Amino acid sequence: MTSSTLHPRKPFVARGSNIRRCDSCLMPHHRCICEYRVRVNAQARFWLLTHRKEVYKPTNTGRLILDTIEGSEVFEWSRTEPEAGFVEQLQSEMFDPYIVFPEAPDYSDRMVEFERKPGREPVFIVLDGTWRQARRMFRHSRYLDRIPVIEPRTTRQTRYDLRTQVESHHLCTAEVAAAMLEQIGDDASAAVLDAYFQVFNEYYHASRRTRPMKNLDAPKELLALARDVLDLAANRPG
C-alpha cells in the first residue's frame, strides 16, 4: 500500500460500519471535514508504517498527516516482508529517515538528535497502531534496526479521546507528527496539522453524540488563513 491515503482491502465491519461515510475523509457524511483540509510543504515528510488492523478504522489519525503534509506516504507494516517501495526509499540518498520512538537503554546507541543534512530531506517514520502494536512493530522488524531513532521531546498531553488511552503522554499518530514538526522548528506546519486534528476530533465526537462540539473558531480560522497564504504564494508572479 503505497498510495497517500488509506484504502481498506475489505469492508470496515466494526462499530460504526453501517454509517454512510465520505469516501475521502471517512467521516460520517453529515460531519465531513474535507472543506478544512489544507496541504502544506513542511520541512519534513512522514512515512507511516501502519498496522493492518489500523487500516480499517475511521478513528485512525494517520490519514490526517497524509491529508496535510505534502509527500507523506503510508505503507502497511509486515514483520518480515516490508513493501518494496518502502525499502527502496529507505535506501535512497534523497532521504534522511528517522524512526520516531521513545528512548530505552537497550537501543541507546541508536538514539540521535535531529540534524539537517544538505541535499537530504528529513523523513520521520511513525509506527501507526496502538501503543502495544507499535512496540511490537519496533522490536520485531529487523529491517528497521539500522535506522536512527529520535524521541519526541514534548510536554504535550494527548487530546485524542476517541479511544481509551493508557497514558496521557501516549500521543496519537497525528499528535506525534505535530510534535516532531515543532521539534525541528516548523511551527507553522505543526499548527496547521494540529488544527485539522482538533476539527477531526471534535467532529467525530459530535457524530457519535458523545458531547457537543467545543468552540472550533480558532482552528477553522487557522486552516482558512493557511489556505489563503498558500493560494497567494501559488499565484505570485515569478
UniProtKB/TrEMBL annotation:
Keywords: S-adenosyl-L-methionine, Transferase, tRNA processing. Its EC number is 2.5.1.25. Pfam families: DTW. One of its GO terms (molecular function) is tRNA-uridine aminocarboxypropyltransferase activity. Residues 18-209 form the DTW domain. InterPro entries: DTW, DTWD2/TAPT. The keyword Transferase applies. It comes from the Bacteria. PANTHER family: TRNA-URIDINE AMINOCARBOXYPROPYLTRANSFERASE (PTHR21392:SF1), TRNA-URIDINE AMINOCARBOXYPROPYLTRANSFERASE 2 (PTHR21392). This is tRNA-uridine aminocarboxypropyltransferase. It comes from Marinobacterium aestuariivivens. The lineage of its organism: Bacteria, Pseudomonadati, Pseudomonadota, Gammaproteobacteria, Oceanospirillales.
